[in-house]
Amino acid sequence: MTDDDTRASAPVPRGRRQRFLHLGRAVGEMAVSAAADGIAQLARGERPQLSQLMLTPDNARRLADRLSKMRGAAMKVGQLMSMDGKDVLPPEFAQLLAGLRDSAHVMPLPQLATVLEEEWGSGWESRFRRFSFNPIAAASIGQVHRAETADGRTLAIKIQYPGVRDSIDSDIANIALLTRLPGLVPPGWDVAPLLERVRQQLYEETDYVTEAASLTAYRAQLGDDPLLHVPALYADLSTPRILATDFAAGESIDQLMSGAHSQALRDRVAEALTRLALRELFEFRLMQTDPNFANYLYDSASDRISLLDFGATQAIAEPVVDILREMARALRAEDRPRIRDAAAALGFIGAEDSDAQANGVVDIVLLSGEPLRTHGRYDFGNSDLFGRVYANGRDQYREQGFPGAPPADIMLLQRKFAGVFLLASRLRARIDIGRLFDPYL
After folding, report:
1. Cβ contact 133:9 at 8 Å
2. Cβ neighbours of residue 273 under 8 Å, at least 6 residues apart?
3. Are 12 and 162 a contacting pair, CB within 8 Å?
4. Which residues are listed as membrane-spanning (predicted)?
5. Would you give the distance in Å from CA 157 to the centre of its chain?
C-alpha cells in the first residue's frame, strides 16, 4: 500500500431512489451512445446488432465511472461481471470493468469526517499522531487510510462507506430490473445467480465484526510463515464500520506481471499462493474466498506477501474436504466414473440432469485438472487452458444447457481456485502442481 496517490471523490449516494437514478443515468448514457452508433452504421449500409452497440469500450467506461461513484452492490456486480463474464462479454468491455476492483471514488472529507465521529466519537483525533485523509485504497465496500497512533503504531484503517449495508437489497433489485433491458446483458447469460451471490457476499463483507474474528482465526492458523503475513487486528480502534490493522507495505501482486520481475520470483509467489489455497482447504478448513489480486501485497524489501481482506472468509465442512480430496484423486487417475460421483456429491450434477449434461461436466472437470496431471512444472504462461475451459463450457451451454448450479459455498471455493490459477497464468509462472497436492492425496 502507498499513500501518495490522489483519487477522485464523490459522496456515496444513499436511498433507493437516489441510487436508482445513478443506475438509470448510466443505462441512459449507454443507450444514447448505442443509438448514435447504430444510426452511423445504418448510414454506412450496415445492420447493427443491439448487444454490440451497447457493449462497447466507451459504454464500459461510462458504466465503470457510474458504478465507481455508487460503490456497494452496484460496483460489486461490475467487478464480478469482469471476472465471470469473460466468455460472453467483449474482451475490451470486460477489461475496462476489471478496473473497478480497486478504483472506487472516495468519500469527500465532510462525509468521511462524519463517519469517523459517528464511530470513534468527538475528539477522536487525540488518539493519533497522524491520520492521512487521502485514502491509500478504495473499493466497493470501503476505503483504507494510513494512520499513526499516539502510542506509535502504524495502522491501516478500513472505513465502510455510509449506507452500503442498508442499500444491498435495493441495489440488487434495481440492477435486476435494469438487466431486463434489451442489449444490456449478452443473450444467454443468466445474471440471477451472479446477483444472488453478490447479495450474499456483500452481507458477509459489510459485517466487520465477523471479519475481525475471521482475520484473527486465519492469522492463528497461518502461524509464523516466512513468506506470508496477515496483519494483526487492533480491537481498540475497530468498530462495526471500522477495521484497524497493522499497515502492510507493498504493491498489488499483479504488478509482478511486468518484465521487470524475474521468472524465479514469479514462480515463487505463484507457488506460495497455490500452496496456501491447498492449506486453507485441507489443513485450515478456512478459506478466504475472494481471489481479487488487490488482496495480495508483495513487499520487495521484506520479500513477503501480505494477505488482506477477510470479509469473504468461509469455514469448510469436513465432508466437503473429503469429497474434494476424492475429486483430486480421481482427476489424477482420469477416472471418469469417480469424477462424476464426486461432481454429483458437490452439486455440479443433479438427479434430473441428462447423461449428456453429466458427461459435459466431467469433460470440463477433466480438462481443468490438466495442471494436476502434468509431470513436473506446469507452464501457466504458455498454456491456453483457460480458453479451452471457457470454450468447452460455452459450447456445452449452447448445445444442451448447463446443469443446475451447485450450492453457493461450493461456487466460492471453485472461484478461489480458479482465481489462484488465473494469477499463476498472469504471472506466467511455472509450478509443479502435482507435488503441491501430494501431501494431501
Report:
1. no
2. 253, 296, 305, 420, 423
3. yes
4. none
5. 21
DSSP-based helix, strand, coil % in the chain, nearest 5 = 55, 10, 30
Annotation says 290 is catalytic: yes
Distances (CA, A) of 163 to 57, 110, 231, 284: 30, 15, 27, 34
Q: What is the pLDDT of residue 10?
A: 60
Contact 10, 138 (CB under 8 A): no
How many alpha carbons fall within 13 Å on the CB side of residue 420? Answer: 24
Instruction: Compute the half-sphere exposure of residue 440: CA atoms within 13 Å on the CB side of its CA.
Output: 27
Report pLDDT for 53.
42
- The label of the residue with cell 469482469 reads 82
Higher-pLDDT residue of 99 and 431 is 431
- pLDDT at 172 (0 to 100): 80
Q: pLDDT (tens digit, 9 = 90+) per residue, 386-411?
A: 888 877 776 776 666 666 667 778 88
DSSP secondary structure string for all residues of 191-218:
-HHHHHHHHHHHHHHT-HHHHHHHHHHH
Helix (H) or strand (E) segment spanning residue 155: strand 154-160
> For residue range 184-215, what is the model confidence (pLDDT) as tens digits?
555 555 667 767 777 887 888 899 999 999 99
Closest CA to 433 of 364, 360, 323, 331: 331
Annotated catalytic residue, options 84, 171, 290, 353: 290
Nearest to 346 by CA among 409, 420, 280, 278: 409
d(CA 66, CA 62): 6
Residue identified by cell 443491439 is 50
Cα–Cα distance measured from residue 411 to residue 174, given in angstroms and rounded to the nearest whole number: 24
**Residue tagged 449434461 (cell numbers):** 357
Largest CA distance in the chain: 72
Burial 292-331 (b: 16+ CB within 10 A, else e): bbbbbbbeeeeebbbbbbbbbbbebeeebbebbbbbbbbb
Amino acid at residue number 28: G
Paired with 149 in beta bridges are 128
The pTM is what?
0.79
Q: Report the side by side order of strands in the sheet with 296-299.
A: 228-229, 304-307, 296-299, 251-252
The pLDDT tens digits for 246-279 are 999 999 898 898 778 899 999 999 999 999 999 9
- The closest of 360, 370, 358, 303 to 334, measured between CA atoms, is 370
CA-CA distance, 272 to 261, in Å (whole number)?
16
